[in-house]
């Protein structure tokens, strides 16, 4: 599939109003499924234990007032009008904010960053935006402080990881809560004795089916998502209007903030604790920002302000209007969504609610896959198998290991809790923690990225942080009543992320400390003192400069390697996408006649890696274009880590330099039938039994020197002979004298994760017959 086309998806969205409205319609099924199903469980969770529904209606009016202002201030004001503007070149989410800060303050978690990366288009867009805004004195001081103090950088990374872990925890709890709340409507249609034996099994069956269908991809069933959520929103708003007109037309008076004061004055501590249930009305708000990469700011804003927000307000007002006239409700059924639904409509509404809950669960599961992919690309999560389920939409992925892990955990909490009260407590803490992290990161973005006054950042934190801290305290007080679940899950995932990041960082530091100097390479002489065999050798390394220790280890034990040797580094950069024309960074290592090259392949954290055949073609073609163009290109960048390497040149993939060298590979049977061309061709000499013929098609205009032509000729011969992959297989051990904690983390924790995680992408795609692994012990 054409993976490069996914990069331009975000730029096509804003072409016309028709496109924007189409995206707004599609966003209903992907973004708002979770948020739109919150009326199923908000009132039931709020009135579970802490407060009672009295004849005065002060409690129900107070809860309605809290719900209205919470929906208005957090999703509408904070996310729709402020946070959505802090996109990372069209991408959203916790890691998007962290990526913005990494670029503006140089606090990246990736150890192999280069100055050349700042010449990428995505970086330059930020620089251009920066020049248009006035700079404050506090911003540069804060930036300098972050760059100087490693502790602050680690704290910033830890904050982003905590938010990420809570999103993963939400991916466990939201499907359980949504599906269980939807299925709870069965309690009004059967006896209590039968209901308790039906509710949990039905919820588990639906959850198993939901996770079992994930490998098909959301694009195969996504056509039904938007109509389901649209039908659900219209349904709850219509029922809300009916209840308002029929039961209490004056319920709108409860929207006044005065009723919040009356509510807290009467209920006091119980009312404060009930805020943990009210908090659930904004579950799914973070999805508006996290799923921004699939849509556009305007489409998400239109969908929320014109349909989602009014429908939710009407639904909550309708429930409050019904409950204000019904106080003697059976305690078995308590206060829930379905009691306010007219009797004749309960079964159709139940079906729609279950479908909407499934859609809402699908959205958070897909978001969990996406954020884990971003963490893995940034070196903060073990490598997992990532399956791209759509060739057109780059963000739709499926991760089998995470999918089945989420399913088991989701079933465990469903069977373990068996009620919406404790599930709501658990989900609420996860949701509000992510929002607090977003608020903290946004305050830094306002100062460092937007270059606004620190006064605005302080106002943002104080206003929204105070509201969220109030809800956070109410959720945390119920730690033993279910809120411990997201804390435990997040702690486990946080330990995994920290151990992996620490081990990866120490491994890279070992590579840097033990790399071989170019003087050692030059001391081997023009022939490098060893036999050169035909073919191209790809040595995979994490280093962006110097000769990796694995190379000296290899030639010491086997004094022969290929006539063309490429030190290949595949790395991620803190931008969502890298343009195809900026994909490769290529340079010579040592004198030109040694035929040693360094090739750095750069991917964004949302990019899709190409398969092996396309990658090989792009790699060889880009090296050929580098040879043809020479090293004096205007877009050259100096290697920033060491000065001993030559200049590196930015070279795009084959599809980007159509006026340059093109690579053609043909079977020997088709060579004679090839037509004439206006382009000159460099062909490999005839072989006795060639498997394929390789040709470089050169443009007429530029004059190629004799040395470059010979270098291209040798590259052709080497490519025809084949490509061999030389991969390092490191055994990481804590060095002598290390602390007990470090030995435990490296020798057991990191080693266990390495053994049970996926191999690097290059080793997975490399043909086994052409792969050579070189083992080496890393004492870190």
UniProtKB/TrEMBL annotation:
How does the protein's chain sit in the membrane according to the entry?
Multi-pass membrane protein
Q: What is its main location?
A: membrane
InterPro entries according to UniProt: K+_transporter, K_trans_C, K_trans_N
Keyword Translocase part of the UniProt annotation: no
Positions in coiled-coil regions: none
- Annotated ranges, domain K+ potassium transporter C-terminal: 535-779
State the source organism's domain of life: Eukaryota
User: Domain K+ potassium transporter integral membrane spans what residues?
Assistant: 23-521
Q: Does the keyword Transmembrane helix apply?
A: yes
- A UniProt-annotated Pfam family: K_trans_C
- Residue ranges crossing the lipid bilayer per the database entry: 60-81, 155-177, 197-216, 223-245, 270-290, 302-322, 347-372, 393-417, 429-448, 455-477, 483-503
Q: Which family does it belong to?
A: Belongs to the HAK/KUP transporter (TC 2.A.72.3) family.
This protein is called what?
A: Potassium transporter
């Amino acid at each position: 599939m054409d993976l490069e086309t996914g990069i331009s998806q975000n730029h096509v969205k804003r072409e016309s109003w028709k496109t924007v409205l189409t995206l707004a319609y599609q966003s209903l099924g992907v973004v708002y499924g979770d948020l739109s199903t919150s009326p199923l469980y908000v009132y039931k969770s709020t009135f579970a234990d802490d407060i009672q529904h009295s004849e005065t209606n002060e409690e129900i009016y107070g809860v309605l007032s809290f719900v209205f202002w919470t929906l208005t201030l957090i999703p509408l004001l904070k996310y729709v009008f402020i946070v959505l503007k802090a996109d990372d070149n069209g991408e959203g989410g916790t890691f998007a904010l962290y990526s913005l800060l990494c670029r503006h303050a140089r606090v990246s978690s990736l150890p192999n960053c280069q100055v050349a990366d700042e010449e990428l288009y995505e970086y330059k867009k930020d620089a251009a935006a920066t020049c248009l805004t006035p700079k404050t004195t506090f911003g540069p001081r804060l930036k300098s402080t972050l760059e100087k103090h490693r502790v602050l950088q680690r704290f910033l990374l830890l904050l982003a990881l905590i938010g990420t872990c809570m999103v993963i925890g939400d991916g466990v709890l939201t499907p359980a809560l949504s599906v269980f709340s939807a299925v709870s409507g069965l309690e009004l249609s059967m006896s209590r004795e039968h209901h308790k034996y039906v509710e949990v099994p039905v919820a588990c069956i639906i959850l198993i089916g939901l996770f079992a269908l994930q490998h098909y991809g959301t694009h195969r069933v996504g056509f039904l998502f938007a109509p389901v959520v649209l039908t659900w929103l219209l349904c709850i708003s219509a029922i809300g209007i009916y209840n308002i007109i029929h039961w209490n037309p004056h319920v709108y008076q409860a929207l006044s903030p005065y009723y919040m004061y009356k509510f807290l004055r009467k209920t006091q501590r119980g009312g404060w604790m009930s805020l943990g249930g009210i908090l659930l009305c904004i579950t799914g708000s973070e999805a508006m920002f996290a799923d921004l990469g699939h849509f556009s700011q305007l489409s998400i804003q239109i969908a929320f302000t014109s349909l989602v927000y009014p429908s939710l307000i009407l639904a909550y007002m309708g429930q409050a209007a019904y409950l204000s006239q019904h106080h003697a409700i059976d305690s078995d059924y308590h206060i829930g969504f379905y009691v306010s639904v007219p009797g004749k409509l309960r079964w159709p509404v139940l079906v729609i609610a279950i479908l909407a809950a499934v859609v809402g669960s699908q959205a958070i599961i897909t978001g969990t896959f996406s954020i884990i992919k971003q963490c893995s690309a940034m070196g903060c999560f073990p490598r997992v198998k990532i399956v791209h389920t759509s060739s057109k939409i780059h963000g739709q992925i499926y991760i089998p290991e995470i999918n089945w892990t989420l399913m088991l955990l989701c079933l465990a909490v469903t069977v373990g809790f068996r009620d919406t009260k404790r599930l709501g407590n658990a989900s609420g803490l996860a949701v509000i923690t992510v929002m607090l992290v977003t608020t903290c990161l946004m305050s830094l973005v306002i100062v460092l990225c937007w270059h606004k006054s620190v006064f605005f950042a302080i106002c943002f934190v104080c206003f929204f942080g105070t509201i969220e801290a109030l809800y956070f305290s109410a959720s945390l007080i119920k730690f033993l009543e279910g809120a411990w679940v997201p804390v435990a899950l997040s702690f486990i995932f946080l330990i995994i992320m920290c151990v992996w990041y620490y081990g990866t960082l120490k491994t890279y530091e070992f590579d840097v400390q033990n790399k071989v100097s170019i003087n050692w390479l030059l001391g081997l002489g023009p022939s490098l003192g060893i036999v050169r065999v035909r073919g191209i050798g790809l040595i995979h390394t994490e280093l962006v400069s110097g000769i990796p220790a694995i190379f000296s280890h290899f030639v010491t034990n086997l004094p022969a390697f290929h006539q063309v040797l490429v030190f290949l580094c595949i790395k991620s950069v803190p931008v969502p996408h890298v343009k195809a024309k900026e994909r490769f960074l290529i340079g010579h290592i040592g004198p030109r006649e040694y035929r040693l090259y360094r090739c750095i392949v750069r991917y964004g954290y949302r990019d899709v890696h190409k398969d092996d055949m396309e990658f090989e073609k792009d790699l060889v073609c880009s090296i050929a274009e580098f040879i043809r163009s020479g090293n004096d290109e205007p877009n050259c960048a100096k290697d920033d880590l060491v000065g001993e390497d030559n200049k590196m040149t930015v070279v795009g993939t084959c599809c980007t330099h159509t006026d340059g060298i093109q690579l053609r590979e043909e079977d020997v049977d088709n060579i004679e039938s090839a037509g004439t061309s206006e382009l000159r061709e460099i062909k490999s000499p005839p072989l006795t039994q060639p498997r394929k013929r390789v040709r470089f098609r050169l443009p007429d205009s530029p004059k190629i020197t004799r040395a470059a032509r010979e270098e291209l000729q040798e590259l052709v011969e080497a490519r025809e002979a084949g490509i061999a992959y030389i991969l390092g297989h490191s055994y990481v051990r804590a060095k002598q004298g290390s602390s007990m904690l470090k030995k435990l983390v490296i020798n057991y924790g990191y080693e266990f994760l390495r053994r049970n995680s996926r191999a690097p992408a290059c080793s997975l795609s490399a043909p086994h017959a052409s792969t050579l692994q070189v083992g080496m012990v890393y004492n870190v």
